[in-house]
Amino acid sequence: MIVKTLFQRKGTLFLATLKIAIIGGLLFNVIHLPIPWLLGPMLFVFIWAKFFKEKLYWPSKLRDSAMIIVGYTIGLSFTSATFVQIGQQITSMILMTLLLLLFTLIISIVISKLSGIPFPTILIGSIPGGLSQMITLAEELEDVDITVVTFLQISRLMMIIFTVPLFIFSPLFDIHIDNSLTSSVQNSANLSDLFPNIIVFVVVCTLFAFLGKRINFPTAFLLGPMLATIILNLSGLHGHTLPSFILDCSQLMIGGYIGLLLKPENMKNKLKISILAIGSGIVLLTFSFGLSILLTHLHSMNTVTSMLSLSPGGMDQMAIIAKEAHGDMSVIMCYQLFRTLFIFIAVPYLLKFIFNRMNVRVADKM
To answer: Computed over its alpha carbons, how large is the radius of gyration of the chain?
Structure first.
């Protein structure tokens, strides 16, 4: 009886949240803002939860389902020619990742000195593109404020998701989209075109998602389906692009989830840390934009592709923006994926080494 009541309560809260998310998406669509079904639900759910103080609920399984859809869409853009192109850019991927992380280290030192917040907390909260990994790492280290780390990570992510598309589609930044760089897959499809191949893709993509989760692969519900789609496509079983209404639904499912992530009420010194989060996010975005200009000179790619490749945000959100802006999704995802894997595999060990050295120095001075 208690379980049934709890389930009904969650169902009621979810329906209320869904209505708010749909209203946000519809409004953003009417006023022609970019990626309306991601930004609208995200902003409306966030504002409603924080300013009207109402309890809302969004199942994480919805977001996971949306990630599978986005992973499938990304995987369709990979061809054998794509891997040749990526092989030619591996040096740039390493260079850009290291420069971005080095700059993050420098900003964290400055912010720590200005704010008085311990350096480990600021640094872990500022590492771009590794939300779940950084929060896990914060739990393993002493003297790290997990609440501040979570707030810094999520607030930067939300700011990037909202500002990057507005910047890209802004008349102040006139980007001429090069359609030759877009995927060979078309932007729309009929449901009838998907069958029967889509059945195989659904089963295999879902299996890869859960397998990735089982082995603790980063963003498993995105990368698992992406890898499955690439393998199936290269093996000769071709998939079709999903109809636009399914892609819109996936945006809504991700946007509603992100809108409920930020919980500033659980944090002390809200104003100071909020200013730090916004300031560091702006500085990091500016630096990544500078790197993107450098990248366009190193390789033959348009500004949209270079910006989204180096944007310090989540892969799934960058994929949605890339599709709307007609960027080269396969290149963008490879840059994003390389940084994510580097952060997942190497960064925790590097940070632990740095913090241990810092503790040794402090102990020597005492």
So the answer is: 21
Q: Are 133 and 218 in contact (CB under 8 A)?
A: yes
Q: What angle do CA 320, 325, 331 make, to 5 degrees?
A: 70
DSSP string, 33-71: -SSHHHHHHHHHHHHHHHHS-------HHHHHHHHHHHH
Distance in Å from the first CA to the final CA of the chain: 60
pLDDT exceeds cutoff 80 at 316 = no
DSSP code at position 78:
-
Full DSSP string of 14-29: HHHHHHHHHHHHHHHH
Q: Looking at residue 188, what is its pLDDT? A: 47
For residue 179 the two structure tokens come to: 């359609």
Q: Look up residue 163 and give its two tokens.
A: 């500002």
The number of angstroms, rounded, from the C-alpha of 40 to the middle of its chain's C-alpha atoms is 16
Tens of pLDDT, residues 56-87: 899 989 999 999 998 898 888 887 877 887 78
Distances (CA, A) of 117 to 132, 143, 269: 21, 11, 11
CB 76 within 8 A of CB 183: yes
Encoded tokens for 110: 């400055």
C-alpha to C-alpha distance for 248 and 150, rounded to whole angstroms: 28
Query: What six digits make up the tokens of 189?
Result: 């499809």
The whole-angstrom separation of Cα 94 and Cα 100 is 10
Helices within the chain (DSSP H only): 2-30, 36-51, 60-76, 80-87, 90-115, 119-126, 131-140, 146-168, 191-194, 197-214, 220-234, 244-259, 270-298, 303-310, 315-325, 329-345, 347-365
What confidence tens digit (pLDDT) does each residue in 238-255 have?
A: 888 888 899 999 999 998
Q: What is the pLDDT of residues 167-205, one digit of tens each?
A: 887 775 555 444 333 333 444 456 777 888 899 999 999
